[in-house]
Write a structure and sequence with these properties.
single chain; 886 residues; alpha+beta; 7-stranded mixed sheet; 7-stranded antiparallel sheet; 35 helices
Length: 886
Amino acid sequence: MNKVEKAIEQEVYFGTYPVLPKERKYGFIDALLVLSGYCIATWSYTQGSYLATLVNFKQLIIGAFFAALFMLLIYQIPVILSVRYGIDIWIWLRSVFGFKGVNVVTILIILVNFPWYAVCCELFADSMENLLGLFGISLFSGGHLVLSISCVVLGTFIAYRGIGSITWTTRILVPLLLLVGVVVVIVGFTSVPIEVIWNYKPELSGDVSQTTNYILSIEANFAFVITLVGGMAEVPRLCKSEKSGFYAGVLGQGLAGSFFVVVGAVMAIAMHHVTGEMIDDPTMMLATLSAPILGLSSLLLVAFANIGTQAVGSYIYGVMLKSTFPKLSYRELILILGAYVTALCVWGKITEYFGSFLTIGALVYAPLAALLVVDFFLVRKQKLDLRSAYGLEGHHSYDYTEGFNIVGMVCLAVGFILSLLIYNPIKGVVHIPVLFVLTPTGCSFLVTGILYYLLCKLAPIRRYVRKDAYVVPDKKPFDRDRVPPKQNLFLFPLMLLICKILTSKNKLKIDKHNMEGIKPPFLVLGTHQSFTDFYVTPLCLAPYRANYISELEGFENFGEWIYRQVGCLGTRKFINDQALIKNIRKVIKRKGIMVIYPEARYANVGTPSEIPLSVAKLVKLLKVPVVTVNMQGNYLMSPIWNLKERKSVKLHADVTCVLSAEDTKQQSVQDIHKILTESLDYDEYRYQRDNNMVIADDFRAEGLHLPLYKCICCGKEFKMITTGTEIKCDSCGASFEMDELGTLHKKSSQELLLSDKGDELYIPDWYDWERECVNEEIDAGEYGLDIRVKIEALPNSFNFVDCGEGRLVHNLNGFDLTFYNYRTDKMETLHFAPKSTISIHTEYDYRGKGQCVTLSTMDDTFFIYPLEDGFNATKIQFATEYLAKK
């Protein structure tokens, strides 16, 4: 007993480890033979007999082979991953369902799949009973059940003895089943005229139509091959090539399995012609159509075949359960499986409800197959984090909610329920005829796959499902040349409704100036204060649709598909992107509206960043009217240094046509730049004071130390702290209270380094003073930053790439970023000259990771986080902008 348990332990644990390429032993022919043997069982005769009650022989052949092959060509696709990684699909499924989710799915699979072995036991009992009847021997009451259970007992006993007995059983089982099949084919086609079989048509019962029966036959063929998951999971991982594993599964199961289904149909049709009954027992058929002695000889073959099949099935699923419940012994699990089959035999109606049983199995397998295919090709793009799949310490990509991947489990449930809504397999009632044409399995497969794919396109769900993106990242650069789509016409009303709802609580007011007769194409330039800008601008431009420029971080955060639908063009900040210019011109040429936020960064303290001269040059190039959208209140509602919403803020926007098409042709670049700068000027705190807008939130000053990083009393940097409504220097003790109108009041006795300000201080004035201090530091040649940093690259709209630790140096010569470049697989230093970086993108708490700045190349945006003191994003921004001017 200990030896058996030890062998099972090795099978469970060592059998789940990845098989190395040099350890693979199956070529195409070997795998084809093994999988063919796996598919051959006496239940194939039951399947053939069932199909013969639905369709004529010609339709039966077409369905048995082509429907099976069609489904297998799709369902076997994940076999490629089994070969590539040397693992079975149960390891992969941990990424789809989670570790506990796979356990639940395993149990569900056994519940719907293990009744196949009850079919074997029923066939064994039928063979025995029918053959005894030929010799005039009648069974006692309950004798059929005793025979069925005896098959369970004998099969369980063989499985109970472990791998040695199973090996010998399979060596004898496959040849015997093949022999029976050959004999059945010969007898079936020689005992009745060939025309009887070829021209056979079933008798339709009740009001069932030929179309419904044909669809049910296709469904039965789909279900028959789709439930052969065991062989699909285990054998291909031992194949030497992906093609061998895939085609061996398709042809082994699609040809061998289907051939024996057709053999069963031939047998049933022949018996129907001779006896008037559809009989799926090969023993009875051989005894009736040939000679009793042939039936008697086949009895031993069929008997052992069914016992052996039950033994092999018990072993396979016992090992599967052992990996799910390692604390239970293999032999306890074998006995549980035996008890389950025994209960089905006692019920005694598994063959009566064979069609229902097939469909119920497909209810689970169809969405499971869809999830495997979509996850493999479209979601994870054929990449798996093996360490996380095996639950190694420190690798948690597939640790989901309490061990369950909610998305995968919900999609599986949706596919299951949808099939039941289309067709009731117990009562045989079609509820939705339109969808029934696709078959319940086909419809469930399609809907589950599409649902899972679309859900994974939503950025929050994608990040939940694809936590392995950091480990196995997609490194392909974003396609900047892709033609920008028009804003989706059908989503546009929904987008406006969402924008209206999100801004109504702040009573957005829009005033339009000089907009009479202004129609697309035209260019829109907007102020950029917070994410609320993207809710206000569409309302300002309604009823027109527009295209928007967005940094790739937004694409990654919300999902590229959604961003494309709302008309966004992707780019990287502060680079010379010629592809972007081409796409802007394409939007204008197709008479569209192009929206640009030229500051390219949220307002740090409610005042504008400088508008680059290149924007005026773009205006000159496009030669279309220019409309400015100057928004007020967006910064006050959620400043970048503290995104908590201030609900008392009122929003306002001025929409003005500042340049006609003729003006853009006649005005100089410098004059256009001056007009734009004046039109896009703003001061949020002045707007607050002028409108007496009280912000009484008790957290209103928290985070202000991030832009106001330098004490205005003692001049020390990075010593400012904030709590509640107060900002304070941790070095000299100087403190200021922020009132309800956004003005700072000095509470301490220290003198200000900024003269003539008294006890009241405006936040923008402090900010501008810091900028002058940095400029003076640079002019004196004293500015410099050399700091250890953490770096993450964003190559595309899908995922970040962890570049580990590196070093950021910033001085009068620009930026030097030293790190391990994942594109070249070596340490490199990227240099960014002052002239090439007119500014830098800053974040104060990016996704909860703290301060960061970004530097961009054409193919990557590098998010840089400090690992040492002395880093402040605002100061780096000031230095970058001044060095670019110098």
